[in-house]
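PROTEIN DESIGN WORKSHEET
SECTION A - STRUCTURE
LENGTH: 84
TOKENS:
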């Protein structure tokens, strides 16, 4: 990726791609996440940036870690290790 995308844009892209990859409609994702259908559409179009709570709710509904919602596809993923 040659240009840096905002977290909101990355979230919107990942949201749509992950939702579609799981075969979910916006209605189904809204039900699973506890968010409104209208808000899911707003997020996918990046009309608003998500809150931390929203990122967590969507990630849980999509069965991914919250960080996966904000890391651009194809970029190295963060690895968090516990130090002893």
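SECTION B - SEQUENCE
RESIDUE ASSIGNMENT:
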């Amino acid at each position: 990726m040659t240009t840096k995308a905002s977290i909101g844009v990355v979230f919107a892209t990942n949201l749509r791609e992950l939702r579609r990859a799981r075969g979910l409609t916006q209605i189904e994702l809204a039900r699973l996440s506890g968010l409104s259908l209208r808000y899911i559409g707003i997020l996918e179009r990046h009309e608003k940036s998500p809150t931390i709570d929203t990122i967590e709710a969507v990630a849980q509904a999509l069965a991914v870690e919250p960080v996966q919602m904000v890391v651009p596809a194809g970029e190295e993923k963060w690895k968090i290790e516990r130090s002893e």
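SECTION C - NOTES
The helical segments are 7-21, 26-33, 37-44, 52-62.
The two ends are 35 Å apart (CA to CA).
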